[in-house]
Amino acid sequence: MHTRILIIGACGQIGSELTAKLREIYGTDNVVASDIRKGDQDVFKSGPFEVLDAMNFDAVAAVVEKYEIEEVYLMAALLSATAEKNPAFAWDLNMNSLFHVLNLAKENKIKKVFWPSSIAVFGPTTPRDNTPQYTVMEPSTVYGISKQTGERWCEYYFNKYGVDVRSIRYPGLISWKTLPGGGTTDYAVDIYYKAVEENKYTCFLSENTALPMMYMDDAIKATIGIMQAPEEQIKIRSSYNLSAMSFTPREIAASIEKVQPGFTIDYVPDFRQSIADSWPASIDDQKAREDWGWKHDFDLESMTKEMLENLKK
Ligand code: AKB
């Protein structure tokens, strides 16, 4: 396969693992990683890397032209917690970067776009359990508003200009390779680090706050899966609900305690609690399963095993 790919925001939590996997599939030289600054992970030491500001249209267009890029994965964004602290910048980054890439696709400079949405598109008036694909969406965070607006624009560019844009609504993502940056679901990564270092954890969400979550291997599988699916299978051009597991801080702590006896947790909720309270507890992703064959591999128990094993190495 010789598809030429650009990843914008490659040094983030998803981007770094996505870069490694796409290079494995498409060949190192065909996958250009880019970010506002160069990452220090090994994956960025081999293969093409461009320092790139996702908000600068001319700079993005120049990289697309230089490498004859066909597909763009736009992973640059400010996440929920950070966005609340800097709403204007979050809006600019999350929206402008999307318009730049959609417009390049509209002008036929690129053929296919991946853009991540999030469970943050839902809000306090959305049914919380088994949240359907189509339902009330009144997000109450800057991040959620930007993702919901982005979804509308993706669908619009598909309908009006035939842009082949594909998207999934990520739940909280958990990985031992790269730390998340500024999300509300980050506790579910921190907890494993603290379990290994101190066998105890202070959680910034309350014990019964259930949220949809997913192990990074599954998220990468979904991302590449939707991009590789035949065009006619992608029937939703806003964004697909995607689900693997759902748990509370108390439940993840119990799964760690099973592997690591003596592990303890206490709870000191902060401003992120109200963000979590506005999001679904679990997600119905039947459409993704039916349309393009999505299937997850990891549940809470298998994820805990992998996380602890790898972090202890
Ligand atoms: C966040 O917590 O902001 C992200 C997300 C669910 O999109 N992990």
From TrEMBL:
Family matches, as Gene3D superfamilies: NAD(P)-binding Rossmann-like Domain (3.40.50.720)
Domain NAD-dependent epimerase/dehydratase: 5-234
InterPro entries per the UniProt record, alphabetical: Epimerase_deHydtase, NAD(P)-bd_dom_sf, NAD(P)_epim/dehydratase
The protein's name in its UniProt record: L-threonine 3-dehydrogenase
PANTHER family per record: L-THREONINE 3-DEHYDROGENASE, L-THREONINE 3-DEHYDROGENASE, MITOCHONDRIAL
Record-stated family: Belongs to the NAD(P)-dependent epimerase/dehydratase family.
Species annotation: Paenimyroides ceti
Superkingdom, natural source: Bacteria
